[in-house]
Amino acid sequence: MRTGLIAVVGRPNVGKSTLVNLLVGAKISITSSKPQTTRDRILGVRTLADAQFVFADTPGFQTRHRSALNAAMNRTVTETLADMDAVVWVVEAMKYGEADEQVLRLLPKERPVILAVNKIDQVEDKAALLPFLEAMAKRFDFAAIVPVSALKPEDGDYLLEVLKPLLPEAAPMFEEDAITDRSERFLAAEILREKVFRLTGDEIPYAVAVTIEKFEEEPPLKAGAGRGLIRIAATIWIEREGHKPILLGRKGEKLKRIATEARQDMERLFGAKVFLDCWVKVKGGWTDNIGLLKRFGYG
Ligand SMILES: Nc1nc2c(ncn2[C@@H]2O[C@H](COP(=O)(O)OP(=O)(O)OP(=O)(O)O)[C@@H](O)[C@H]2O)c(=O)[nH]1
């Protein structure tokens, strides 16, 4: 049996979370087309007959904005890299820039690094891919270079096969059916945050946090009938009063849609009926306030 920790790193928006979800086989890490969706370190677990892969999805490495939130996120990336057995560095096919270069500088020399060249489904000129891969090969001594699309399950299976021999021989760290180290409470907050990100357009900046005030599971209606109803109460924190109408939408319709989509994702992931109650509250300047960051779980 092989078991190992694998960091998934890369600049914002290259598809790290989408790839981790594919490798794990469930949606444990939230994704969106906006950079900086992932804020925290989440472990994703996948167990095969002869190997257990423990993936650490990391926030996209950020240098542009210098808030306390970004500093905390960048620290998470550097700390994650320090105790890994292997690293998957994700770049986007045909797009290599300064932000990727900064991640390259962080790659450990003494651990195997696999380059995953993602979003190849978007490359129209396939002939241009080979020179791109060759240029990438010169930048670092990679254990392997794997072109992938994080939307294709067979690409995930192939990446697992490439990773397997790089893991040390060791007993599994998690139960066979575990998919993450995070609680359902945490996952519920993340799912709701994802819907806010996805459904509010660009008007609401990345300064949104979600806290869960209540997470209670009722006993099943009858024995053996699966899980009982889960009652969740959540608060969506925004920075400015002016963001409230954007989040609520006309007659509260936007918030209703956010809550409905979040509830559906939660039901799928938890395998239970969910009753979700959402509130919106304003707390100015939380992205720059260390105490509040801790409270929101980003400390
Ligand atoms: N076409 C295509 N889109 C992809 C692929 N992988 C990811 N995406 C999309 O790219 C966007 C960003 O994906 P994420 O997984 O959130 O990216 P991330 O690197 O985790 O982003 P951060 O959390 O900001 O660091 C989403 O809209 C994904 O659906 C891919 O292989 N092909």
Automatic annotation (TrEMBL):
<dbReference type="GO" id="GO:0003924">
    <property type="term" value="F:GTPase activity"/>
</dbReference>
<dbReference type="GO" id="GO:0005886">
    <property type="term" value="C:plasma membrane"/>
</dbReference>
<keyword id="KW-0694">RNA-binding</keyword>
<dbReference type="InterPro" id="IPR005225">
    <property type="entry name" value="Small_GTP-bd"/>
</dbReference>
<dbReference type="InterPro" id="IPR009019">
    <property type="entry name" value="KH_sf_prok-type"/>
</dbReference>
<dbReference type="Pfam" id="PF07650">
    <property type="entry name" value="KH_2"/>
</dbReference>
<keyword id="KW-0963">Cytoplasm</keyword>
<feature type="binding site">
    <location>
        <begin position="10"/>
        <end position="17"/>
    </location>
    <ligand>
        <name>GTP</name>
    </ligand>
</feature>
<feature type="binding site">
    <location>
        <begin position="118"/>
        <end position="121"/>
    </location>
    <ligand>
        <name>GTP</name>
    </ligand>
</feature>
<feature type="region of interest" description="G5">
    <location>
        <begin position="148"/>
        <end position="150"/>
    </location>
</feature>
<keyword id="KW-0699">rRNA-binding</keyword>
<feature type="region of interest" description="G3">
    <location>
        <begin position="57"/>
        <end position="60"/>
    </location>
</feature>
<keyword id="KW-0690">Ribosome biogenesis</keyword>
<dbReference type="GO" id="GO:0043024">
    <property type="term" value="F:ribosomal small subunit binding"/>
</dbReference>
<dbReference type="GO" id="GO:0005525">
    <property type="term" value="F:GTP binding"/>
</dbReference>
<keyword id="KW-1003">Cell membrane</keyword>
<dbReference type="GO" id="GO:0005829">
    <property type="term" value="C:cytosol"/>
</dbReference>
<dbReference type="InterPro" id="IPR005662">
    <property type="entry name" value="GTPase_Era-like"/>
</dbReference>
<protein>
    <recommendedName>
        <fullName>GTPase Era</fullName>
    </recommendedName>
</protein>
<keyword id="KW-0472">Membrane</keyword>
<comment type="similarity">
    <text>Belongs to the TRAFAC class TrmE-Era-EngA-EngB-Septin-like GTPase superfamily. Era GTPase family.</text>
</comment>
<dbReference type="InterPro" id="IPR015946">
    <property type="entry name" value="KH_dom-like_a/b"/>
</dbReference>
<feature type="domain" description="Era-type G">
    <location>
        <begin position="2"/>
        <end position="169"/>
    </location>
</feature>
<feature type="region of interest" description="G2">
    <location>
        <begin position="36"/>
        <end position="40"/>
    </location>
</feature>
<dbReference type="InterPro" id="IPR030388">
    <property type="entry name" value="G_ERA_dom"/>
</dbReference>
<dbReference type="Pfam" id="PF01926">
    <property type="entry name" value="MMR_HSR1"/>
</dbReference>
<dbReference type="GO" id="GO:0070181">
    <property type="term" value="F:small ribosomal subunit rRNA binding"/>
</dbReference>
<dbReference type="InterPro" id="IPR027417">
    <property type="entry name" value="P-loop_NTPase"/>
</dbReference>
<keyword id="KW-0342">GTP-binding</keyword>
<feature type="region of interest" description="G4">
    <location>
        <begin position="118"/>
        <end position="121"/>
    </location>
</feature>
<keyword id="KW-0547">Nucleotide-binding</keyword>
<dbReference type="GO" id="GO:0000028">
    <property type="term" value="P:ribosomal small subunit assembly"/>
</dbReference>
<comment type="function">
    <text>An essential GTPase that binds both GDP and GTP, with rapid nucleotide exchange. Plays a role in 16S rRNA processing and 30S ribosomal subunit biogenesis and possibly also in cell cycle regulation and energy metabolism.</text>
</comment>
<dbReference type="InterPro" id="IPR006073">
    <property type="entry name" value="GTP-bd"/>
</dbReference>
<feature type="region of interest" description="G1">
    <location>
        <begin position="10"/>
        <end position="17"/>
    </location>
</feature>
<comment type="subunit">
    <text>Monomer.</text>
</comment>
<feature type="binding site">
    <location>
        <begin position="57"/>
        <end position="61"/>
    </location>
    <ligand>
        <name>GTP</name>
    </ligand>
</feature>
<dbReference type="InterPro" id="IPR004044">
    <property type="entry name" value="KH_dom_type_2"/>
</dbReference>
